[in-house]
Every structure is written in structure tokens, then in C-alpha cells.
Amino acid sequence: MSKTLTNRECEVLTHICRGLSNEETARELNVTVKTVEYHVTNILGKLGVRSRTEAAVAALEQGLLGPARLKGITSRKTAKTREIPR
């Protein structure tokens, strides 16, 4: 399997970085949830990670997504904090 992410996988990875669920990603990309799950599986395999969180971290650390795709995604330094309800 090629280690290069396809354009669609980059789109799905962008949605992962934005914190969207598979269902939300499917709606935005006008595909089925199964298709998104397929892409997520491929992304995890290509990046050599085990979770969506690890994939998002790898994407940001390795600069896998260009500035246009990262628009609207905040870093931990600039993100607003929210208290977790008890």
C-alpha cells in the first residue's frame, strides 16, 4: 500500500483534525459513513497510528495538510479552554 494520502484521505484527515465524527464527515462530503470509515482505516494505516487523535497529531506535527486545509483549526496554545461539567 502506498504511504501517500489521496486527496480524499486528506479531506477526511482535515475533518478528523477539526474534531468531526464519521457521521458529520459523511454529511459534509456527501458520502456514506462506511466510505468515511474506509478512508479513516487507510489513513491510520498509512500514518502508522492507532487512533483518530494520533492521526490528527501526526498530521499537524508532520505538516501533512496545507494552510488552506488547516484554516479554522486552532492549536492548543490558541484554543479557548472550557471547564468540564461535573
Strand-helix topology:
Layout (H helix, E strand, L loop, with lengths): L6 H11 L4 H8 L3 H15 L4 H10 L5 H4 L16
Helix pairs in contact: 1-3, 1-4, 2-3, 3-4
The proportion of residues in beta strands is under 5%
CATH superfamily: Winged helix-like DNA-binding domain superfamily/Winged helix DNA-binding domain
Number of domains: 1
- What is the tally of beta strands? 0
> Which structural class matches the secondary elements?
mainly alpha
CATH architecture: Orthogonal Bundle
Task: Give Rg in angstroms.
Answer: 13 Å
Shape: globular
| Helical content class | 55-70%
Give the helix tally: 5
SSE string, helices as H and strands as E: HHHHH
Give the biggest beta sheet. none
CATH class: Mainly Alpha
CATH topology: Arc Repressor Mutant, subunit A
Uncertain runs are 75-86
Residue-averaged pLDDT, rounded? 82
Quickly list its features.
86 residues, mainly alpha, Arc Repressor Mutant, subunit A, globular, disordered C terminus
In brief:
The protein is built from 5 helices and no strands.
Plain-language structure description:
This protein is mostly helical. It has one domain: Winged helix-like DNA-binding domain superfamily/Winged helix DNA-binding domain (Arc Repressor Mutant, subunit A). The chain is 56% helix and 0% strand. It is built from 5 helices and no strands.
